[in-house]
UniProtKB/TrEMBL annotation:
Keyword Cell membrane: no
UniProt keyword annotations, A-Z: Aminotransferase, Pyridoxal phosphate, Transferase
Family affiliation: Belongs to the class-V pyridoxal-phosphate-dependent aminotransferase family.
Species for this entry: Halomonas aestuarii
Record's protein name: Serine--glyoxylate aminotransferase
Cofactor: pyridoxal 5'-phosphate
Record-annotated Aminotransferase class V domain positions: 36-332
Length: 402
């Protein structure tokens, strides 16, 4: 039987980089009765949230919402814009970029996976100059899309999407730009229209602070045009029927009614606070957590300070220490979940999520659990990261000038 009594008192510390903790306000909104998804109240809700959600993506174009995890929205992006056999250029930044590449193969696309050699790609962001060079070689424009991950959740590295746009333009190349910001949206700066993104893919359970279960495609006019002629079979994911039904606030099939209540509430929370404030709070938390890692004398997975993730921090364990053994001690002793190392990073590092519904003291507790657990696991620490982060938060109030 499922043991739901495992956490005897207090709240579990869910500090993985998604799903992130769901605020009570959102849980309460979701607890309302499920209504008729073809009735007038639902249509009004649909119209309101389809309009509001555009602000978070920073787009004036439609945002499509699927009752699916983020992976479904990846498939939707590929299957609405491309045809079997199409060449696509993908950049290896970590585990999620790798999974998206695997999906492209399964969909019978011809993905080319470029990146920095070996493990280096997993410690840096997308190298826009490599994309530009590859596109310049592609004189007959066989490459139909460039696919990149904005916030690589497996490593804690972001990528400069504006630079990727500039690279495509500098090569004079017509390829579509498809961007996964499943874990970046509403935590890291993101601008669908300004950065000329054709399809932005996102999900509910990270910066949007919702439970898992809905995901998004923000689209450009060019992407919609491609979806009218592309040859990939698509039905559930097809944009045309959804966009048509969305005009009146409905979906062609049953949407996730209660998750949409939650989304409506989450959008209100984010817009009331102001997106700039939300982003500033994430940057500050990330800086505080990095101060702790530095004081411990440990390495951060991301090796380029210009692209440190505001969403999560990858903490590298010294040679000979299994990061998952450390995570297990922390979980069992302190009721604290940290992200595991994925793919090539397995066993080498763990990930601290600092996104969504956190505050200074939840992060201090998290860092306290990490510090105590690492000591129990025999990780040699140079000093107290907990003390360093407490100092950082105390002396860097949000909205201060410094
Ligand atoms: C979480 C995540 C995914 C996968 O989303 P699911 O909801 O698990 O399908 C893909 N890409 C990135 C960057 C993610 O953070």
């Amino acid at each position: 039987m499922l043991n739901l009594d495992f956490h005897p008192s207090g709240r579990h510390f869910l500090q993985i980089p998604g799903p992130s903790p769901v605020p009570d306000r959102i849980l309460r909104a979701m607890s309302l009765p499920t209504i008729d998804h073809r009735g007038p109240e639902f249509g009004a809700l649909g119209r309101e949230l389809l309009d509001k959600v555009k602000q978070v993506f920073k787009t004036a174009n439609p945002v499509i919402i699927y009752p699916a995890s983020g992976t479904g929205a990846w498939e939707a992006a590929l299957s609405n814009t491309l045809s079997p056999g199409d060449q696509v250029l993908m950049f290896e930044t970590g585990h999620f970029a790798t999974l998206w590449h695997k999906m492209a193969l399964r969909l019978q696309l011809a993905p080319e996976f470029i990146g920095l050699p070996g493990y280096e790609g997993w410690r840096h962001g997308v190298q826009a100059d490599m994309i530009e060079a590859r596109l310049k070689e592609d004189r007959d424009h066989a490459i139909k899309a460039v696919c990149v991950v904005h916030n690589e959740t497996s490593t804690g590295v972001t990528s400069d999407i504006a630079a990727v746009r500039r690279a495509i333009d500098a090569a004079g190349h017509p390829a579509l730009l498809l961007v996964d910001t499943i874990s970046g949206l509403a935590s890291a700066d993101y601008r669908h229209d300004e950065w000329g993104v054709d399809v932005t893919i996102s999900g509910s359970q990270k910066g949007l602070m919702l439970p898992p279960g809905i995901s998004f495609n923000a689209v450009s006019d060019k992407a919609i045009e491609a979806s009218r002629h592309n040859l990939m079979p698509k039905s559930f994911w097809a944009w045309d029927e959804i966009l048509e039904a969305n005009q009146n606030g409905y979906w062609p099939y049953t949407p996730s009614t209660n998750l949409l209540y939650g989304l409506n509430e989450a959008l209100d929370m984010l817009l009331e606070e102001g997106l700039d404030n939300v982003l500033a709070r994430h940057q500050r938390w990330a800086a505080g957590v990095r101060t702790a890692v530095e004081a411990w004398g440990l390495e951060i997975q991301c090796q380029d300070p210009a692209v440190y993730s505001p969403v999560l921090t990858g903490v590298v364990m010294p040679e000979g220490i299994d990061a998952d053994a450390v995570r297990k001690i922390i979980y069992e002793r302190f009721d604290l979940s940290l992200g595991t190392g994925l793919g090539k990073a397995k066993g080498r590092m763990f990930r601290i999520g600092h996104l969504g519904d956190c505050n200074d003291l939840t992060l201090i507790a998290t860092l306290g659990g990490c510090e105590a657990g690492m000591k129990l696991a025999g990780v040699p620490l140079k000093g107290s990261g907990l003390a360093a982060a407490l100092d950082y938060f105390a002396h860097h109030p949000l909205n201060s000038a410094d």
